[in-house]
Design brief:
mainly alpha
Length: 178
C-alpha cells in the first residue's frame, strides 16, 4: 500500500483554503459586528474590511445583511454616521488650501489640478452623503417631491397638486439660478 503523502496541501473537497480558514477564527460575532460598524462609520469599505485578517469574507457580511435584522439595523446606523463623517471631511477638504499654490516662474502660482481634485473630492462626498442621509444632506427640492409622492392622493385636488408642483419647480429654478 502506498503511504499517504504528508506534504500535500491542506485543501480538498469540502475544505476551505488556508487563508479562508484563518478568517474563520472563533471570535465573538457581536464583537465582529461592532468592528465592522465602527470601520464603516469611519469610511472604510466592506471590501477593505473583509480583506483584513480576522474579518469574515464579503459574502458572509452580505449574507448577514440579507438575513439578520439586527445586523442590518446596525449597518444602517453605521452608514448614517458615515454620512456625518463625509460632511466633516467636506469641511476639512474645503478649508485645506496648503497645496493650492506651487512655486512657479513668477513666484507662487495656483495649482489648478490640485484645486480641481479637491473639488472632485468635495463633490463626491457631498453626493454620497446626500444618498446616505437624504433628509439631512439631500437636495431640498428632491425631498419636497418625495413628500408629495407620500402625500395621500385622495386628499389633494388636481388644482392643489398643480400648485405644489409649480412651487417645487419655482424653488428648483431659483436654486439653479444661484
Amino acid at each position: 500500500m502506498a503511504k499517504k503523502d504528508q506534504t500535500a496541501p491542506d485543501v480538498g473537497p469540502g475544505r476551505a483554503p488556508a487563508r479562508a480558514r484563518a478568517r474563520q477564527q472563533v471570535m465573538d460575532p457581536q464583537a465582529i459586528h461592532q468592528e465592522i460598524f465602527l470601520r464603516i462609520m469611519e469610511g472604510e469599505t466592506v471590501r477593505a474590511i473583509c480583506a483584513r485578517d480576522g474579518m469574515p469574507c464579503k459574502a458572509t457580511v452580505m449574507n448577514w445583511l440579507a438575513r439578520d435584522p439586527e445586523f442590518r439595523a446596525g449597518y444602517a446606523v453605521a452608514k448614517a454616521l458615515y454620512a456625518e463623517t463625509l460632511a466633516e471631511e467636506v469641511i476639512e477638504i474645503s478649508d485645506d488650501g496648503t497645496a493650492d499654490w506651487v512655486a512657479g516662474e513668477d513666484g507662487k502660482e495656483l495649482d489648478h489640478e490640485h484645486v480641481q481634485r479637491a473639488r472632485l473630492r468635495v463633490d463626491s462626498r457631498k453626493w454620497l452623503a446626500a444618498r446616505l442621509s437624504p433628509k439631512r444632506y439631500g437636495d431640498s427640492s428632491m425631498l419636497k417631491i418625495g413628500e408629495l409622492e407620500n402625500a395621500p392622493r385622495s386628499d389633494l385636488s388636481d388644482t392643489e397638486r398643480a400648485v405644489r408642483l409649480a412651487a417645487i419647480a419655482a424653488q428648483h429654478n431659483k436654486e439653479m439660478m444661484k
